[in-house]
Specification:
Blueprint: H1 47-66, H2 71-74, H3 77-92, H4 97-125, H5 136-143, H6 170-175, H7 178-200, H8 202-217, H9 227-250, H10 260-277, H11 291-308, H12 323-331, H13 333-352, H14 358-363, H15 365-369, H16 371-389, H17 391-396, H18 408-416
Helix pairs in contact: 1-3, 1-12, 1-13, 3-7, 3-9, 3-11, 4-7, 4-13, 7-8, 7-9, 8-9, 8-11, 9-11, 10-11, 13-16
């Protein structure tokens, strides 16, 4: 299971509306009344969190294309994405919990439904149906997980693909990111209880998922079946990151002495790395296949990233040039995550067709073997998915749909104003 999809997020910090009034001034010819300063309305985005989310998405795409084992060590994308989502969830829970949960689920599901309409239709056209399971009633029941993913949505295996454009068994890759959607949904449902536990017992609550992960790893807890244990394994792997994001929003990390996190976090991360190296860490056997090592490494790294957190309301000068692509990645995070695997499969399948051209394999085999052209092609296809399917995120957030929401429209509107 690859580490999938960084679910979508609203801005990371809020700003109360300020009543700007103009003081009374004597009416004299020499003096002119100055207009009040324009203040931003609504919440102000935390650009540091936007940067982390954009890096997480880019690293996920690169990892799923190359499979390089060291990439999750450089940047544990899934732990970061869950931490950012937990931070935003804790901030939202200042409102009634039922209202917040309804809002989060509404933002999550429409992009999944769009993927389901396209993907399930394609699977059915290629012969997938109730007869595959032998129990038509169960097949239809499991299909409802494409509507509300309390468990992993079902998919067909062994499909023939589309020659030259879509590889065989493509449905497995399409369904790969869905574990993240299911895990995110359960985190949202559990967040009111996790927040209460965090406020009562902060240290115990943060480390409880790590203890659960250790219990699974060393055989103290075993559960039959596949779906339910999978959900618990995901919670034990990334639950500490989600809760740590909530702790950051609650200000609990700032209450610690400044030396605590820089002292503790590297030790936790290195313990995870040591455990991974003791279990034949390599490409094909990396952190994704070692939940306990993943839990420790992700927690330690996320602790450091949140500790450093500069809370940028505006971009530093050296990062302003990346404002539009980062804004786009954040505005379409769910769409990118859900569709990136399929885009990679299509890009690789089409790129492999170039081996059939004599000129290419005789003189440019080094180019055909390079992952970078495929990565560029995959991002072009991801961009097309943003245009074709990204509007679902706008509808889910009750915004006016946009084809390419990189922030340029808002800026041009502010200039015209």
């Amino acid at each position: 299971m690859s580490t999938p999809y960084y679910p979508p997020s609203p801005s990371s910090s809020s700003q109360k509306a300020v009543d700007v009034t103009v003081p009374l001034v004597p009416t004299v010819p020499e003096q002119q009344e100055q207009p009040p300063a324009v203040r931003p309305k609504g919440p102000v985005r935390d650009r540091y969190f936007d940067l982390l989310r954009a890096l997480a998405l880019f690293r996920v795409v690169l990892y799923h294309l190359t499979g390089w084992a060291w990439l999750p060590l450089v940047f544990p994308s899934m732990g970061v994405m869950f931490a950012l989502a937990g931070n935003l969830m804790a901030r939202s829970l200042k409102r009634p919990a039922a209202q917040v949960i309804k809002s989060r689920i509404r933002r999550l599901l429409p992009p999944l439904w769009v993927l389901g309409v396209v993907g399930v239709t394609g699977m059915v056209v290629q012969g997938w149906g109730p007869s595959d399971d032998g129990h038509p009633g169960w097949w239809w029941l499991h299909l409802t997980y494409w509507i509300l993913p309390l468990s992993d949505p079902p998919y067909a295996e062994g499909l023939p693909g589309v020659h030259g454009y879509l590889a065989e068994n493509w449905a497995v890759d399409l369904a790969g990111p869905l574990w993240y959607i299911r895990a995110y949904l359960w985190y949202v449902l559990l967040s009111p209880f996790l927040l209460k536990a965090l406020r009562a017992l902060p240290v115990a609550t943060v480390f409880a998922p790590i203890v659960l992960s250790a219990a699974f790893e060393f055989g103290y807890i075993t559960l039959p079946g596949e779906r339910f244990p999978s959900a618990l394994t995901d919670f034990s792997t990334f639950g500490a990151c989600w809760i740590l994001g909530m702790a950051h929003q609650e200000g609990l990390l700032k209450q610690l002495p400044r030396y605590v996190v820089p002292s503790v976090a590297p030790a936790i991360a290195l313990l995870g790395l040591w455990y991974a190296t003791k279990h034949d860490f390599s490409q094909g056997n990396d952190l994704d296949s070692m939940p306990f090592a993943q839990a420790l490494w992700s927690l330690g790294t996320v602790m450091i990233l949140l500790h450093v957190s500069p809370s940028w309301s505006e971009w530093p000068k050296r990062l302003k040039r990346f404002d539009r692509p980062i804004t786009l990645l954040n505005s379409r995070a769910v769409t990118i995550y859900l569709w990136h695997n399929t885009c990679i499969v299509v890009a690789m399948t089409i790129w492999d067709r170039l081996w059939g051209i004599d000129l290419m394999w005789q003189h440019f085999s080094w180019l055909l073997e390079s992952p970078w052209p495929v990565l560029v092609f995959a991002w072009i296809l991801i961009g097309s998915c943003i245009v074709w399917f990204g509007w679902a995120e706008d509808l889910a957030a009750k915004r006016r749909p946009q084809l390419w929401p990189d922030g340029s429209r808002a800026k041009s509107g502010s200039h015209r104003a």
